[in-house]
Amino acid sequence: MDLKEKLLSSFLVFENQVDIDTYVHDVRNDAIKIFEEKGFPTKKEEAWKYTSLNKILKEDYSVFPQQENAIEYKDIKKYFIHDIDTYKIVFIDGKYSSHLSQTTHDGMDVCLMSAALSKPKYRILIENYFNKAATKDSLSSLNTAFSSEGAYIHIPKNKMVEKPIQIVHFSTGNESATMLQPRNLIVVDENSHVQIIERHQSLNNNPVLTNSVTEVFTNKRAIVDYYKIQNDSSNASLIDNTFIKQRKESVASVHTFAFGGKLTRNNLNFFQEGERIDSILKGVTIIGEKQHVDHNTLVHHIEPNCESHQDYKGIFADSSTGVFNGKVIVEKEAQKTNAFQANNNILVSDKATINTKPQLEIFADDVKCSHGCTIGQLDESAMFYMRSRGIPEKEAKALLMYAFSNNVLSSVKIPEMKQRITKIIANKLGVDIGFDL
Amino acid sequence: MSKYTEDDLREELKTKEYEYGFYTDIESDTFPNGLNEDIVRAISQKKEEPQWMTDWRLEAFRVWKEMTEPEWANVHYEKPDFQGISYYSAPNSKPKYDSLDEVDPELLATFEKLGISLDEQKKLAGVAMDVVVDSVSVATTFKETLAEKGIIFMSISEAIKEHPELVKKYIGTVVPQKDNFYAALNSAVFSDGSFCYIPKGVKCPMELSTYFRINQAGTGQFERTLVIADEGSYVSYLEGCTAPSRDENQLHAAVVELIALDDAEIKYSTVQNWYPGNAEGKGGVYNFVTKRGLCEKNAKISWTQVETGSAVTWKYPSCVLKGDNSVGEFYSIAVTNNYQQADTGTKMIHLGKNTKSTIISKGISAGKSQNSYRGLVQINSRAENARNFSQCDSLLMGNECGAHTFPYIEAKNKSAKIEHEATTSKIGEDQIFYCNQRGIDTEKAIALIVNGFSKEVLNKLPMEFAVEAQKLLEISLEGSVG
């Protein structure tokens, strides 16, 4: 039985078990129909031209992990940004772990999707927001059909959330292959500000496939900083679908740090539904071996006077493959749009491949849109300069690569987070120097 | 003079009708509509082709039957009915003439209206012309001068008879029959086209030029061009088109193959002005062209194009940089107005070491038109030190048109250096203000800016062609190009 059939048949079982709310019930049923019709995307689709799911779909994934698995905090401490106080929403094999988490209902909701879906007091919010930003593509629909657990965050008006929120999904790998489908909903009301860190981590080498959907709504003048850390084990694959709907004068930024995993696909979509909105998309990708990272971004400029900034840097070693597929659409009404897109890549090995496709689709005339992309090598004269001053080759290379990705790092607003990323990069580049020289 | 604003320009663009819309009544020898193996055989027979050519056409036809039309391009149009087209039509006045005086005077008048009178061309530019009116060569001039140098420049049907060994060796090597839907169709039914061979070490002393015209109602035109530059040779080839006004859509599916052997250089320039349809978007030519060049060692191929016409354009002049140190260039201006749609760009396939490519593409969209750049830069794993620079700039006039960029970049070699940049903007008010301040009126300012915008490409056109290019740009953007 292939994965699609398996999913379709488990949906019937799943639906009977969890269904409570009629609104979500209808949404789920519509979604599974879309998935049934479209199936998993293939390379024939333009958006999947450079990324094939065939290999990872061959595993015999268990769709609903049976066991309750517990893990000790000391074993997984290193996966948290632990040196500062944060809210934590932690899942183990798709199930909420209360003893690792730290949630709140004090003046705002930082809690669980399952609670939001079942408790009547959340009904209006769920009906207003749930599945309202996600598109009807097959993978998001698949997630919608199976959506039951994930993070639910609602920040009411005029609230500065004083500490960052960490959403961490662990998979224990106790079963031979696991498929996880977390679903997150984040609603930030007027004038509020929140910082969120998301991480997916598998704890051993059994294959994991995560098909995650996150919907973020930023209302008037809200500010959202979202950080995604992707540094998973070599058998973990992640399909991350993030949809951000912005109202007027809001600012949303997403930083994606892709360092690991077997196959990582980031579908990052911004919809600007108001004037004077700013969207920021940044990413650093450093991979090697046979890893594959695909950034597929969309910024949809619908109203006038908005901006978007995209900056993606990639370093590709060994037989790794990088894909950047960025799309900016500027609608006819979206005059005075400023949209910038940059994608810079370094190939370190002859076997590495980079495919990049920065697209612009523009229907308005009074706009400033540009994109640039480069593929190149480390500057030899810069290398020589450092080597002639006694810096060994490896360290010199690492310094240059760090400098290369620093543009993206410099806009990270949580210092501890920046340090952590720096350490991961140093580790990735195989050097032992802190970069805060 | 009252203030000339961008709105005025837009208004002018909207109402500017196609000037060269006229129709010459020459008796034609036309085949019945439709396409099957018999028609393919009949075309081949009509052209008195050898058996291998007939077989080659039939092979292409069989492949074509299995293929479907490509739909990935960013254009929307009513699909042509391939069984509703006549696949062959030739002007009646045969056989060929030795001098221009013998040519059908009505035909000469047509050329005069286009401002490309053969006489003038002959005298002024020293351009040898292989004129194609509805698929068959009518006059070939300067042939003797070229013959002295050993250059072969003739219609492809003549070449099939006179130089079968060359045609047989090279035809379909760069664009195989089954390359794509339209290339397969062309391979099966191509009526005529140009053939050019430059022998070893010869620098072609003049620009070679062909003017295309679609002339008979309901006739698709399927040109086939094959240019071979042997080792160390150089040729500059010009191609230009204008077509009469017509209500039903006409199909144009040409194939151009360029082969540059070691150390050779080919410069291929195109000015394209097929009928774009009227202001409501009715009528107009469908231009689905496959153009590709192959570069051997140290060879260079340069494509320059000025696209102002056609209702729908689908065209990607490409370079396969097979030999080490070979160079590919692509310079393009695409102007779309009213309901025109253009999906055009290039492919640079880097296979050899130290290969270089440059892409400069300028898109100007006005009215309700859609203008897309679609390009591919591919660096193969063995292409050490490959270098590419791409620049795609779009200029938008009015908020009902669209400009799109779809660059594909695939690098498989770590020593590759690739740069791509694209911008989209309108004519800035500050730019116009700057000019006004210095006593340049708005009309001149717009002209200056548009001129400057496309200059990088216009500069690449051969002198003889620049006049024609200017003329065609004027039709599309009158009032803005000086």
TrEMBL record, chain A:
The gene is sufD. It comes from Flavivirga algicola. Residues 174-404 form the SUF system FeS cluster assembly SufBD core domain. InterPro entries: Fe-S_cluster_assembly_SufBD, SUF_FeS_clus_asmbl_SufBD_core, SUF_FeS_clus_asmbl_SufBD_sf, SUF_FeS_clus_asmbl_SufD, SufBD_N. It comes from the Bacteria. Belongs to the iron-sulfur cluster assembly SufBD family. PANTHER family: PROTEIN ABCI7, CHLOROPLASTIC (PTHR43575:SF1). It holds the Pfam family SUFBD_core. Transmembrane segments: none annotated. Residues 23-167 form the SUF system FeS cluster assembly SufBD N-terminal domain. This is Fe-S cluster assembly protein SufD.
TrEMBL record, chain B:
Residues 131-204 form the SUF system FeS cluster assembly SufBD N-terminal domain. Pfam families: SUFBD_core, SufBD_N. Residues 212-453 form the SUF system FeS cluster assembly SufBD core domain. Transmembrane segments: none annotated. NCBIfam families: PRK11814.1 (NF008773), sufB (TIGR01980). Belongs to the iron-sulfur cluster assembly SufBD family. This is Fe-S cluster assembly protein SufB. It comes from Flavivirga algicola. The lineage of its organism: Bacteria, Pseudomonadati, Bacteroidota, Flavobacteriia, Flavobacteriales.
